[in-house]
Protein: Protein takeout
Amino acid sequence: MVTLSYTAAADHPVSLVLRAYLLITVIATFSRPAEAVLSVNATPEYIHSCRKADVQFNSCIKETFNHLRPYLIDGIEELTVPPIEPLVIPKMQMENGHGAVRVRAILSNMTIHGASNYTVLNVRSDMNKYRIDLGLFIPHIEATGSYDVNGNVLLLPVRSRGEFWASFENVTALAKLYGVEVNKEGVKFMKTERLGVGFKLENSDFKIKDAINMQNVIGEAMNVFLNENSAEIIEEMKPAASQAIGKHFKNFLNNAFLQIPLKVWLKDSE
Structure:
């Protein structure tokens, strides 16, 4: 189980709710629908290819993802992948309807800086089963945008809407990819069927400009209460966060994988 730890620096009761949800946006990447499909003989400069028979295969896959980073910064036009620095996400909706934290959150017009500065730390894989586990690290993330949150946290009603700014330090994540082979007109591709993600961070800072509650004594008291119970709140919200991470990152991976034939990045594929 991945646990979270951070400094309590929020100035509103809804901040703990948003803090956990916003963290998923540093991992999830918005991209347009796939259109182009590369030839099996293509040798794009952004692909660092590997061979399954390589005894250092995991190290090669690690280099493949790290090699891709500067190309993601500017976007990959032929794959219709937009630039991710900054990373722009028009809208993301999440809902947790179980346990002590039952909230619906809509984040919109998000601009995120720093997500492209990722490093793949380690890889474990079994390409016979199309399994890849990736350990990632991002030193610093800043995000701005709009939010709308409605629900209950530990029996306390939460209703807030406005603008936010968030900063995260030393973010680590583990992504577990479960893929399958698909055949399109005689060409083989890998498709992501399922993606599990765990994450943690060292520190975070968060500020909001609430357009509903403004200055509210009850709200300030609630903020203190939520800070004192942050560990329990984060634990309750993990299922919703994991589901949103898997959904968005799975879509991004398939946008690329289903355009790049297996033979382009796995040279000894049949």
